[in-house]
Amino acid sequence: VAAALAACGGSGRGPAPVFVTSRTTEATQSFEELRDAWERRDLEPAAQRAATRRISRGAARPGDLIFFHRGRSTYHVGIYAGNGKMYDAGNSRVDTTKRAIWTRAVTYGRV
């Protein structure tokens, strides 16, 4: 989570981070590659979901990805912060914030 915050300006403000990092260098490198792809708009939410290993809600840890679904479509991605909260930006015009997960129509993934 710390690397995700640093990538968006260090304080949770800035472009919407939509990728996870973990405690390993390899995962941090993956985070940077995915973030770069997102900034180029090469990786839509469904592709991000496909690039992760699905995990249960109970197994989710801070730093895992959370995918929001409408039917079969994945329309939004955030970074799980723990305790029913996540980091995300509602759209590209607003700052990244930590807020409550607002729906149960989600799945969790880990890089």
Number of helices: 3
> What value does the average pLDDT take?
75
Regions with pLDDT < 50 over 5+ consecutive residues? 7-26
Sheet/helix structural class: alpha+beta
**Rg result:** 12 Å
| Sheet with most strands | 6 strands, antiparallel
Number of beta-strand segments: 6
In helices, the fraction of residues equals 10-25%
Description of the molecule:
There is one protein chain. The two termini are 13 Å apart. The longest helix has 15 residues, at 25-39. The radius of gyration is 12 Å and the shape is globular. A six-stranded antiparallel sheet has the order 1-6-2-3-4-5. With 111 residues, the protein is of the alpha+beta class. Mean pLDDT is 75; it is low at 7-26. A hairpin with a 2-residue loop joins strand 2 and strand 3 (73-82). The protein contains three helices and six strands. The protein is 24% helix and 29% strand.
